[in-house]
Design brief:
Elements lengths: L1 H4 L3 H25 L5 H18 L10 H19 L22
Helix pairs in contact: 2-3, 2-4, 3-4
């Protein structure tokens, strides 16, 4: 798919160097600051960023917008929706497996 849009090697290399930081930034920030973020949501967001950046500059309603703006916005939207679909993790953390004398849960 990328080869159809970027026929030269130089174009594909430039695309991949712009894609990687944009695809990783939004999931990384959400994973650091939002406890509910999960693996599936991060993978879905990174895939959505890659698809949005691949197609935003060439077709559709987002032709006028820069792909580096559209990609992270789409990734954030997909990450929030995918995270909210899954149930929230347990609020109690059990340390019994690591420390035999530790209390059953932390606040």
């Amino acid at each position: 798919m990328v080869a159809l849009i970027y026929p030269s090697v130089v174009g594909a290399v430039i695309f991949s160097t712009l894609l990687a930081p944009a695809a990783v930034f939004v999931p990384l920030v959400f994973a650091l600051y939002w406890r509910r973020t999960n693996r599936r949501a991060v993978f879905a967001a990174a895939t959505a960023v890659a698809a949005a950046q691949l197609f935003s500059g060439h077709a559709g309603p987002f032709v006028a917008l820069d792909p580096l703006f559209v990609g992270p916005c789409v990734g954030a939207l997909v990450l929030v929706v995918a995270t909210l679909v899954r149930p929230s993790p347990a609020s109690q953390v059990s340390l019994a497996a690591f420390a035999p004398g530790a209390p059953a849960g932390l606040p």
